[in-house]
Amino acid sequence: MQALTIKKHLEVAKPSLDNNLSDMDRVNMSIRNSLGTQQISWPLDLLKILSNTFRSSAGSVTVTARKKDDHLHILAIEPEDTASSHFGLAVDIGTTVVAVELIDLNTDKSLAAMGDFNRQIQYGEDLLTRLHFSAQGGLGKLHAAVLDTINSLVGKVCAASGILPHQISAFCAAGNTSMTHFLLGLDPSTIRREPYAPVLTHVPELFAKDIGIDILPNAVCFIFPSVGSFLGGDLIAGALAAGIDKQDEISLLLDIGTNGEMILGNRDWLLAGAGAAGPALEGGVAECAKRAEPGAIERVKIDPSTLEPSYSVIGDAQPSGLCGSGLIDAIAELYLSGLLDLTGRFVLENKTPRWRKVNGRDAYALVDSNKKGEGPTVYITEKDIQNVLRTKAAMVAALTILLDSVGLDINSISRVYTAGSFGIHLSVNSSITIGLYPRLPAERFVSLGNGSLRGAKEVLLDSSRIADTSRIAGKVTYLELNIHPSFMGIFRSAKYISS
Amino acid sequence: MQALTIKKHLEVAKPSLDNNLSDMDRVNMSIRNSLGTQQISWPLDLLKILSNTFRSSAGSVTVTARKKDDHLHILAIEPEDTASSHFGLAVDIGTTVVAVELIDLNTDKSLAAMGDFNRQIQYGEDLLTRLHFSAQGGLGKLHAAVLDTINSLVGKVCAASGILPHQISAFCAAGNTSMTHFLLGLDPSTIRREPYAPVLTHVPELFAKDIGIDILPNAVCFIFPSVGSFLGGDLIAGALAAGIDKQDEISLLLDIGTNGEMILGNRDWLLAGAGAAGPALEGGVAECAKRAEPGAIERVKIDPSTLEPSYSVIGDAQPSGLCGSGLIDAIAELYLSGLLDLTGRFVLENKTPRWRKVNGRDAYALVDSNKKGEGPTVYITEKDIQNVLRTKAAMVAALTILLDSVGLDINSISRVYTAGSFGIHLSVNSSITIGLYPRLPAERFVSLGNGSLRGAKEVLLDSSRIADTSRIAGKVTYLELNIHPSFMGIFRSAKYISS
To answer: How far is CA B59 from the centre of its chain?
Structure first.
């Protein structure tokens, strides 16, 4: 298994009258002896420091390189043996949240993982708003904002791990098609306009300096391919992590994020679709929503007799919001306690001291403020519930159409891989209760965690998986669900709990 | 025959719901249909303009690319059909003079050729001074100066031809090893220090923006390989132009410039050496020296009976100096007229109204000033003659050792290719008279003109010759003449005219 980059210590012969090959040729000879690679290429910036580097350390140097077949492209040369400092960064570029994970490419160990809101949010919470802003001349700002988000996270994971950004020689990112365009500064204006042809689906391998990522300037950057405007590299990364294209059984990959996307299939066929789920499930959208970080309520129970809630909070912190799993739990529990009807409306006749009015609207308070006169600090409104139900209905409609198109029913699905920032925390039972997940035995569900980040990690650690990403992207048939004649009908009839 | 770059007009299918491949994939499909190339790569800067470019012209675009085997790297994409504007620049980077030639890559025609002093001269007339200046922290300035020289010439040939610099997509340059290092900003400090290992001999293909050449930013730049510190790409380019490695007969390539370099051999073997000729033969060094441009005396005759000179001048201009060929002619004619002895001293007893004192030193006046009281405007001194004789002696010593080492004598040389800025103009008879050229029948001499520039042009027009440059560079055995035991002895005894 060969990581996306390799790092190797070399002892380069000193020049002599008997061996006055050029410095480059002598280093190349050491590389050939050590790695057996025949074709070796150097970027000009490294040639400028080559001689001083190995003369300063009497020929003891470490090269970092990207190896493809019999070709080696050098990315860095450093004095002395630095081969033990060899790091890669996996990145999930979400519309709402960007997550990164720093990996030691020698030990395969994760050194630090962090996430942060995508700074593009200042130009629009949802993708459509950002695409509109981009078309109005905002592309440069959106490009800079996502770079800023990533570079700030680079600084944080490096500081947390005690390494320097320039020690990161491999970068692997997955995001939806629009995010990929924004990352590269490509105009995404055609993505949402018929006939929905993006600038590109397969991104060439680039160097960090070309994109503007503040790591090793020549670091290799692999960006996951997308299948089209609506099926992004994030889902391909999830499919890679799940390995659904290598199994005989039929699997479903569910990625519930800002959009609800899914891939259904096995080693013979892969069918994908996206329900325009809307932003309900990403932190920052529901009124008391919060990312899954300290202070977020992640589990909720409501006692059916007292109608009083109990909950667990991430970290050692006062509860200050609901993360996605808390929201799904709350809705499921409200429903199971009779406080919510099938349509997602509060049953206010069922009296509980938890009913509140917040800004004139009904709410169920999970956490009350300690101070008099203040409203509740964490609560849930009908609007929050309707948002979730729209997402749920889109997922149901999408899955129904995908299954119909291959003549299968839900029970033919042997395994459901759940991904997205949601997959990590969602309660399978609550998700089945409200109908967000298909009604299948709980043991068929496998949480990939952040599937996009996990796929990115797999490529970082094993560059041969790049070929798998192309293979998966090439095999997927994407069904355009928004224009499918059945979609709206199924969507409308699925906007109920448990339907 | 395929030029270093190719340029091709394409009609790219517009996107539709039936064909909503990405813009890049649709352009790639057109390229594959048109050129049959399978692997296509795009730099990020072009991906950023790709969509707007072909949408602005309803799919009619022209791509410029570098094709290698089955791989095509795109260098430019422009709206409409611009395939007829496809240009390349050949460059000879001389220590003293930089020469460029602008070539139409579609018609193989030369559009403009110009030369100018290398602006590095301000930091030292000869190479050793510049290498010293570089070691003192002057590398950046020397790098900038040679780039300035080339970029200024780019502007001039473009203006003269009515084309724009960004229409130049191919760049091919040859220079000695130090000039190659300076062009790329590489530290040349080890070139003149034992064991004389340069940073590199083979330069990877680069893009103009990487080097800093103001043409198409992604223009492909091929720099001729050198064999070592003392045998540069300029001589390899000359050998390529002469084709000496493809002949059965034994040829000699003589490159007389700031240094005197030569390659002897045939298809089976190539032997090279350099005599440290000194700067005598480059314009700007002899007291009245001038480049071969309007006003330069290029031919000189001295009437043996009157001892009066006659001469021809380049262009419609007053004579204002002597170019190299005029200098060699003058020395040969002075000698043949009995005004110069074997050792290069004036025979002042032979009275002629042309003897002058200039700054207290004896001189032979070729052109007198018209105004009273002023000295002659063009003259020749013994010092000028001694400089030429040192060059001549170094050439003789080098050639003698090369021939000895393979057990051949001068008569085994079937053809002498003369190159360097000198080869264009030198009179073969005068050069044989003073002993600068070997005493062989005049018909064996072939002037390559500027062999370095000519080799560069050949690669521009036929990229398959790149393989020949590596083959020649790999085949040449370089004899280190400066440390050869016989060199100084032969050199001293050859410092006479006609010896």
So the answer is: 42
CB A98 within 8 A of CB A180: no
Task: Tell me which chain B residue has its CA closest to the CA of residue A140.
Answer: B48
First to last CA, chain B: 46
Considering only the beta carbons, identify the residue of B43, B186, B195 that sits closest to A48: B186
Residue A75 burial (CB count, 10 A): 24
From A181's Cα to the closest Cα of chain B, the distance in A is 9
Q: Measured between CA atoms, how close is A211 to chain B, in angstroms?
A: 8
- In three-state form (DSSP H/G/I as H, E/B as E, the rest C), the secondary structure along B404-473 is HHCCCCHHHCCEEEEEHHHHCCCCHHHHHHHCCCCCCCHHHEEECCCHHHHHHHHHHHCCCHHHHHHHHH
Q: Rounded distance, CA A423 to CA A451, Å?
A: 8
Distance from CA of B21 to the nearest CA of A (A): 6
Token representation of residue A70: 């019999």
How distant is the Cα of B439 from the closest Cα of chain A, in angstroms?
35
Q: What is the pLDDT of residues A426-474, one digit of tens each?
A: 899 999 999 999 999 999 999 998 999 999 999 999 999 999 999 999 9
DSSP secondary structure code for residue B14 in this structure: P
Q: Please, is A489 exposed, middle or buried when counting C-beta atoms within 10 Å of its C-beta (0-12, 13-18, 19+)?
A: exposed
The per-residue DSSP string of B345-377 comes to: -B-TTS--TTEEEETTEEEEEEE--SSTT---S
Burial of B322 by CB count in 10 Å (0-12 exposed, 13-18 middle, 19+ buried)? buried
Pick from A218-222, A370-374, B13-17: least confident = A370-374
Contact B200, A22 (CB under 8 A): yes
Domains of chain A are 6-79 (3.10.20.880), 87-223 (3.30.420.480), 237-279+387-493 (3.30.420), 298-379 (no CATH)
**In the predicted model, is pLDDT for residue A335 greater than 90?**
yes
Query: What pLDDT, on a 0 to 100 scale, did the predictor assign at position B285?
Result: 64
User: Which candidate from B16, B25, B42 shows the least CB-CB separation from A204?
Assistant: B42
Contact call for residues B343 and B498 (beta carbons, < 8 A): no
Residue of A nearest to B143 (CA): A48
d(CA B155, CA B89): 12
Which chain B residues are closer than 8 Å to A139 by Cβ? none
- Give the span between the Cα atoms of B245 and B255, in whole angstroms: 16
Contact between B253 and B451 under an 8 Å Cβ cutoff? The reply is: yes
Dihedral angle sign, alpha carbons of residues B52, B56, B59, B65: negative
Which chain A residues are closer than 8 Å to B17 by Cβ? 194-196
3-class state of residue A24 by DSSP: helix
Using DSSP bridges, classify how beta strands B220-223 and B168-175 pair: parallel, antiparallel or unpaired.
parallel
Share of chain A above pLDDT 90, in %: 76
Q: Is A86 helix (H, G, I), strand (E, B) or coil?
A: coil
Among B50, B178, B199, B477, most A C-beta atoms within 10 A, so best to mutate, is B199
B65-117 pLDDT per residue, tens: 999 999 999 999 999 999 999 999 999 999 889 999 999 999 999 999 999 99
Q: Which two structure tokens, joined as six digits, stand for B286?
A: 């002899």
Contacts of A42 in chain B (CB under 8 A): 204
Chain A: residue nearest B23 by CA? A199
Mean pLDDT of the residues in chain A:
92
DSSP per-residue string spanning A407-442: T--GGG--EEEEEHHHHTT--HHHHHHHTSS-S--G
Would you state the structure tokens that stand for residue A40, as one six-digit string? Answer: 């070796």
pLDDT of residue B194: 84
Determine the number of helices (DSSP H) and then strands (DSSP E) in chain B. 14, 22
ipTM, two decimals: 0.88
CB contact under 8 A, A47 and B199: yes
Residue A373: the pLDDT is 61
Peptide bond into B195 cis (omega under 30): yes
